[in-house]
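Input chain follows. Return C-alpha cells only.
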Amino acid sequence: MAKLNFRSNKDRELPAWGNLRRQVHIRSNGSCEFCGKPLGFSQYFETHHRWYPNIDSEKNLMVVHRACHKVIHFGGKISAIKGSLASSGDTGVGATKQWKLFLDNKP
C-alpha cells in the first residue's frame, strides 16, 4: 500500500485523500468530533489533523466544524456538548488520552 501523506493541495486532489476523508466523516456519524454538536446539512466542516505523522490514517484525523477548527488552531471559546472532547479538556491536538478513549468507543 502506498504511503498516504497529504501535505499539499495537489496531494489532496488524490482519490485516496477523498476516501480517507469519507471514512472519517462516516465515523463522525454527522457530528463534530470536537464539540459534539451535529454538523447538520452545512458544507462548513473540515478534516483536522491532530498530528502530522509519516502516514495519514483515521487515527490522526477528525471531522470538525469550521469554527471549532479555528478554536483548535488559534484558541478561543466554543459551546460544547457535555461529554465531548472539547468539554473534557481535550485540545484537539496530539494523541491525548481523551482522543484514545474517543476512538476506542467508536464502532
